[in-house]
Design brief:
The protein contains three helices and nine strands; from the N terminus they run E-H-E-H-E-E-H-E-E-E-E-E. By secondary structure, it is α+β, with helices and mostly antiparallel strands. Strands 3-4-5 form a three-stranded antiparallel sheet.
């Protein structure tokens, strides 16, 4: 449940894949990367709870991505994609590596006793990037705040 106007939403897998591709293939050749463009991410507690409610979630894996920023004429902005994850043996008792931690994304087949379940797992982007959502008083906020920080 949100307490402010910041939307939260499940991200289509195709979008999530593109955003991670944007991040991994960002062309910084010949450019200086400014670490203050992405200091931190802010996520509501309730949003983590929603993610953790997905069936068999033991872990959360976080991926870096870059998505279009609707407020800046299509420029790419950093985002933090979150997915449920679990030990492979949790969803498949016959797994060759039961301790391997696997992402739960999209349609996943789960084996439980003599029952086969199908679950559809979401990719989430609940993140709000700093800047602008910063806490300049935090000991982890290194350097001076600027006009981008609220």
């Amino acid at each position: 449940m949100q307490t402010d106007k910041t939307p939260t939403y499940a991200v289509p897998l195709k979008d999530a894949e593109q955003w991670v591709t944007n991040w991994v293939s960002a062309n910084t050749e010949g450019k200086t990367l400014d670490p203050t463009d992405m200091r931190a991410f802010l996520v509501h507690r309730e949003d983590f709870i929603e993610l953790l409610r997905q069936y068999d979630t033991e872990y959360v894996r976080l991926y870096m991505g870059r998505r279009k920023d609707v407020d800046s004429d299509g420029q790419l902005k950093a985002c933090l994609l979150m997915v449920s994850a679990t030990r492979q043996g949790t969803i498949d008792p016959k797994a060759s590596d039961p301790d391997l931690i696997v992402d739960l994304v999209g349609q996943v087949t789960i084996q439980e006793d003599d029952t086969t379940l199908e679950a559809n797992y979401q990719v989430f982007d609940f993140s709000q990037i700093c800047p602008p959502m910063c806490d300049p008083t935090s000991p982890l906020f290194i350097g001076e705040p600027d006009a981008r920080c609220q």
